[in-house]
Structure formats: structure tokens, C-alpha cells
Amino acid sequence: MGAGMAGAALAGVIVALLMADARASTCHAHFSLSDYPSCVQVTPNVTLHWAVGAGSLTWGVDMDGGRTLVEMRRPLASCDPQDHSVLNDTRQTVVFAYGLGDFAYHGPEHRGSKQLVLLPAPTPATNGSAATNGSEVALQVLEMRASNYSVPADPTTYACVNLELPSDKKYHIYKYEPIIDNARLVHHFVAWACSSKPTTPMGVPYDCLGDMECEEFYMEWAPGSGAIVSPPEAAQAFGSGSKVYIALQVHYTNVEGLEGQTDSSGFRVYYSDVLKQYDMGVLTLGTESIAVPAGAESWSTKPNKCPGDCTRKLAPAAGLTLVDSFYHMHAAGKQMVTRHIRNGTELAPLGRRDFFDFAFQGTVNIPPGTRQLLPGDELITTCTYTGVGRTETTFYGPASFDEMCYNYMTYYPENLEIDDCMSLDEVPTQGFGGIATCTKKGELDQLQSEDDFYRFVYAGKLVLLPLANSTIKAAVANPSRMRAGRMAGAALAGVIVALLMVDARASTCNAHFSRSRYPSCVQVTPNVTLHWAVSAGSLTWGVDVDGGRTLVEMRRPLASCDPQDHSVLNDTRQTVVFAYGLGYFAYHGPEHRGSKQLVLLPAPTPATNGSAAANGSEVALQVLEMRISNFSVPAAPTTYTCVNLELPSDKKYHVYKYEPVIDNAHIVHHFVAWACASKPKTALGVPYGCLRDVECTEFYMEWAPGSGTIVSPPEAAQAFGNGSKVYIALQMHYTNLERLQGQTDSSGFRVYYSDILKKYDMGVLTLGTESIAVPAGAESWSTKPNKCPGDCTQQLAPAAGLTLVDSFYHMHAAGKQMITRHIRNGTELAPLGRRDFFDFGFQGTANIPPGTRQLLPGDELITTCTYTGVGRTNVTSYGPASYDEMCYNYLTYYPENPTIKFCMTLDRVPTPGYAGIATCTKQEDLVKLRATADFVSLLQVGKLVLIPSANSTIT
């Protein structure tokens, strides 16, 4: 064994020259003669000094097996400043090289390394079975490899090939290992993932020293790495709803200029559709602001911060579990560290490389004491380089003679919205300590102007790092991280934009602004109007000088020829949105905006059989407030909080109307009341996080911007109390984009109710689908039409039918369109409603159009949602967070059927010989589905309904 690469600071190295004729009569006890019968002890004649007083080295030769055996004993920590301490429960790299004869360069074939846990921790007990770690799972094998690639006779080559992964379902990777085909030339390789199809055809090699066609770090191999086994409770995902394509990037080092060399290296992946508890993600930390002076002995980057305001978005309340890091620098790299700060106190670092070597870049476990990342923690990464031997400044770049500073940190559970968190030191931010990314790396390509920066800051995708006495001002200096990109325009139909000049006046007021009502009204002519294709449309402005109001009247046809326009619907609530400001156009902020749900074309009020008293006009109504109580809203962009409340239950009551109580309008986004009959787990009145789990599951009432007072129809109302709903989980969604401190809120519902009951109870039926996988970058993607079949509506509706009242269409930020179609005896009626221009910020209820308000037994309802993947780099799947997606129509109707709350096709359940299987029951029945027998039992009682296809057979 001989010294390795010149200049490499390899601590604890012992070099010994093993002479071919050196022999001894006995073997060291640890090399058992029963295991190695031909083993002889050998005394090395060369040992490199290393300041470990108790260290020892033993050599042995297995003559028959042709192996050289080495044992090393050393203390966990030495007094040598060049030494690596042995760390607890942490992979560390042992490097070796060998040769014959006199000392000489060993060459790439006569070297090796191994990552070992030299001081293992006791294996903790886990809740997962052995099967979740793969010991009892039949794993499939996938090879992601270059195919006989002709390696150029150049010193350095970066070659990529795009590969497609199985996507019929979601999979987890239990382990992966390298396949090294041409060890002489392969330096290292990395798999980069993406959800949308890359440009270069599959399997065709292309040069990728500069631009990668997939940008999400996924897996890597470097000398010293071996098989990577996922932890028992988490794994990297691919397939349906996740990564679908891989760009395999291979770095070749052909220093001898060899001709005719080929390679087929890559990864062998062991995977299964038996999923572990969590998906693992990768967060990129580090900096791209690198300028190493030529000849400098040592130069460090400015400490780069992933701020607490980003980790509050990244990590759930319980925190993230950090698994390992892949520290990445190039040939000038010397040291790298990621520090961990919590509440102003520095914990142990996530890891550090004090003797970085470009040739040994394998993953490193996160030390046990710092493996939990809590919301608000800060991560600070610093890289140190040498400029010795260089005649020019070394900058950031992809080539080996450039430099990088990245820590690719693996963690779970994965946050699909954030994979990049680092300060943009090259972007000046006057009055702030800097600006940091908190988003997907691919989204940063959209940053082209100052407006783009403001938009990202308001969305929380860029985070300002505060200083004392900060004022908001940012400037763009063409940073290197920016590339061509654009934000998709928002399709707001019928928008008219007008700039109202303070000094604009006219002598008369428009006739519609009556002088008797507005005596000081003057007409104002707007000087900016955005075209919209409504030929007979007109807009009139007026100013009520005394009242301090701006008056607006719009006249338009019921339907225009503009494909982006909303038609005015008969007897249907529609949302009118407005925003205003002073001076030049700028973001209006949450205070200077509003919306109102109006029936723009009312129908004549029909005569009803119910008395006036049944509609509440002559009923003495009691008032109940269902509100959160003085909740301290976190200084985070998004918070979901619930509080459980108890309703009066001494008798049965009907809700005649309800209205929102908005306490802190600046940060309240929307709220929903979910009902249940049994007492929820969390104590009444105690707030709890409910981004994912709400302790009551029956949709009851909601408020969203644009909604107002909801009045029940004369003949029906929602019930609560004795024999009905008794508990409410009030779910609040707060949006604190400015991260204001000290904010509190007591919003909720004010409910007007009575024990004078109307004729019918109203119920809510949930339609839609949870089978959502929006491809990244897709302009438009629709769910498979999801059917509530006739066999279910025959159970739901009495012979006389149901009366449908309104719908609450619910999607998230990627939602574009939603429709529920209505089929009767094979004939399609008018849809129950449609949202052709869905907006996440305006999700109020919508009336069912008059012509389709009756649901008869045997009718079919088919719901489809359409989304956009533009601006996203990962597949968007079903989930509760704003960056996940949903597709629900909460349909209010009467008379209530209390046994059926969900009617939707379970697209992910295979039903050979049938078109599918649909739910026709309540949520509490569905959570019991664990095995085939559970499905059979629910089928037998009609709580699951098979959807027939032609030539169906019972399977």
C-alpha cells in the first residue's frame, strides 16, 4: 500500500510496503487459522507517523485466497490536528491503494475506498415491520445506465443520457448501488430527476457540462460510495405522482487520452410498490457567490443562510428528520460546514468536511444530535478553498476548474414545494440583510425583473433577511441564477383596469350616480382601460367627494364572444373582484382588495308552500358564534389551525342563516366548519395544527373571500343538536405573507338558528376524485372523469328526487377548471355548475342552475377537474397543502340522507371486468377498508358500488 494522490490530507493513514518475500511463522489471532488456514503474519517495514499513541496495525497474507488482510486499531479521537475523529453512527470513508514493486502511481484500477460506520449505534426499535425495510419485500430491479457510450479522448467529459422510469404507480427505492463499467475512466455520476419530459430523446447521449435537462438532485456515486440503503421509515419516490424522468450525468476523467474507450456505468435500483411511511426529499444548501483569489492559501465564502422563515414553510410542526448530506465542491475545495441554529443557540453542525477531497464525495450521515430540523431553525453553510497554484480568480461554474459549494441534504417527510434554500448574495437588497430562496430551483428561472422579485417575495418563494429598521426595497442586478422564463398570465375574465387620476374632473355626473344621492359626485374619465371583447360594454366612474367614495358602474351583455369571459348566469351567485390603490400601479396588498358574491341576473322569487315564519322573517332567532379565540397567528406564510367546538344539543335546531366574522382580515384566507356527532380527540377550545388531519370530517359550512351571508332556502336548513351534529372542528387558513409578529385572530361563523324546524334537513354530498397527478410544466391536465353512478343515487335520492341547492368547488393553486355533469337516462342535462376560470382565492359557494336542480334516483354525476403544471418542476399530486391539489364538489341538497356523504369512483382500486368501483357511504366506513374482505362486505351492503362495463363478469 502506498501514499495516495499528492496533496490529499488523509488523516490516520498508515503506509506500509509489503515485500513479496516477507514471511512469519504464525498468524495474528484475529486472522483465525480456521478461517484463513494459509494465513501468515507479515511485519511491514514502512509506517507513516501519526500521533495516536495507542494505534496499531496488523498485516496478514491469505496465501490460498490471494488476499492481503489488514487490521487497524486506533482511539476514537487523537491529538493530531490532521486527523479525523471516529464519529458515532456516522458513515466515514476508508481509502486504500495498492501496487507491486517499488512505490509508483497505483492507477485507477489499484485503488479503492469503502464507507463504513466505524462506531455503530444500537439499532433503535421502530414501529415499521421488517417488510417496510425491504427484508420481507420482493424488490424489483431497475438499471439506470449509459449504453455503451464512446468516451472522448479528453481529460474531462460530462455526458448525460435521459431515461424514463416506470410510472404506472408510485414506487419507493429501498436501496441503490453503483454499476462501474469502465473504472479506469469513470470519475463520478449523478442522477437528476424531473417530472416533465426532457428535450433530448430518451437514451441519446448529450454533453451536459453546462445545462442539465433535469435539475432535481436525486442520487449520486463517487469514489468511496457503495450501496445506499434507505432508512426503515422513508425512501425516495418515483413513478405516478412523483419523478418520472432521470438525467444520468457521468463525469469521465481520461487523463491518458485513451482512444476507443466505452462505458455503460450507472445505478442499479431496488424498488417496490410497497411504500414506506414517508417520501424522502433533497434540500440544496450552499452558495454560488464564489471568487477565490489566485494564490490564496485559504479563502471562504460569505456564510450562506437558509433562514428560519423558510424552514417554517419547509418543516411541519413535528419537524423533519435529516438523513445524510452530499457535500459538493471541486478541486480547489478544502473545507465545508453546515451549521445548525435554533432559537439563537448553535447546535452541533449537520456535518463538516475539514479535509475535503474532490475524489471522495460520497454521502455522509447527519450526526445523531442534530438530525431533527424544526420550523424556524436556521442553516448556515460555508465553503473554504485554496487558490494555490492558480493564476486567475476561481468562480462558480460546472467545470472541474470552476468551483461549487452545495450540500445536498436528504430528509423526510418530503416537501414538494421547496428544494432550494440559499441566500442570493449577488442580489442587492437595500435595508435588508439579504434575500434567500425558498422554492423549487426550476422556479428561479422566472426571475427576470424587479416585479418578479416582488411577486416571489409576496408568495414566500423569496425570503427577505431582516436588519434593524428595515424598509422594503429590492433591486435586480442581473444575477447569474436568472435565466429566461415567464409567469403564466392569470385568466381573470371581464377585467377592466382603470387609473383614476386625482385631478380628473368633469362638470356633470353620470345620470346613474343621482345627484340626490351623491350631491358632490363628479364624473371621471379613466385614462387606462384594458381591452375586453364585449362590444356593448361600458364603464363609468364617479367620485363622491364628500363621502370619500369611488363609484363604479359597469354595463355589459349577458354573454360575450370572449373565450376568457364569464357569462352572466340566471339566478346564480357570481363573484365580482376589485382592487384599488393610489399613485402608479403597484401591488394593492391585502387591505386594498375585495370581492362580493352577487346574483347579477335574479330570477323572480317563486311562491313557496312554506310560511314566512319558515324562512325566519317571523322567527325569533338565537345567535351562536363558532369562533377561534384570540389565536396567536404564527409569522409564517401559511398556517392551518383547528379548534373543536361543542354545539347546543338539548334539542334539534335548524340554521336559518350564517355569516362570517372576520377579525383579522389582513391574514385570514378562508375557514371551514367540519361536523361530527362523536366527541373529537383534542380538547374543546384548544387550537391544534390541521394541515392534514381534521378531527371532524363532515363538510358543514365555509367562508372564502367573496362569500357573505348564506341564507337557507325557505323549506330546508342544516341541522345540529339532538340526533344530529354535536361537534364542530373550525379549520382556519391564515396567510401571513409579510410574516407579521404579534398577530391574533378570533374569526369564525355567526350562526342564526332556531328550534322551529323547516320541512327538510339539508345534507352535503362530496363528489370529485383523489386521483391527481399533474405533470410538471403541463399547460393543461385533466383528471379522469369521476362518476357518482346511478346505483348510488338510487340509494341517495327518494322516488320524488332531491333538490340541489349549491356547490362549493374546491381545488388548490394549480386548479383551472371544474365541472360536474348531470346524466339522466343516457341524456346529458345542463351541468350542476362549472368553474371555467377557477381561482384559489375565490372559492365561495355557487348556486345550482335552475334547470338541473332536481336529482332523481338513477341519475349519474360526473366530475372533472383541470389543472396547470406551468411553473412547477414536480408532479403535483393529491394532498391537503396549497401546493398539493384536490378535486371536490361539496354539493348541498335536501332532504338529507345521513348514510351517504361520499360518492366518487376509486380510480386506484383495480376491478377486473368492471369500469370501476364507487363509494356510496360515509367517511368512517371508508377508513375501515384494509383488505379484500372489507371491500366485499361493503359491496354486499351497497356502500361500495361496482360500475358495469360491456360484457362484465363478476370478479
UniProtKB/TrEMBL annotation:
Start and end residues of each Copper type II ascorbate-dependent monooxygenase C-terminal domain: 278-423, 760-905
Q: Which Gene3D superfamilies match?
A: 2.60.120.230, Copper type II, ascorbate-dependent monooxygenase, N-terminal domain (2.60.120.310)
Q: Which residue range or ranges hold the Copper type II ascorbate-dependent monooxygenase N-terminal domain?
A: 143-257, 625-739
Leader sequence residues:
1-24
Keywords in alphabetical order, please.
Answer: Disulfide bond, Glycoprotein, Monooxygenase, Oxidoreductase, Signal
The transmembrane segments are: none
What Gene Ontology terms describe what this protein does at the molecular function level? copper ion binding; dopamine beta-monooxygenase activity
- Write down the InterPro entries for this protein, in alphabetical order: Cu2_ascorb_mOase-like_C, Cu2_ascorb_mOase_N, Cu2_ascorb_mOase_N_sf, Cu2_monoox_C, DBH-like, PHM/PNGase_F_dom_sf
Protein name per UniProt? DBH-like monooxygenase protein 2
What species is this protein from? Tetrabaena socialis
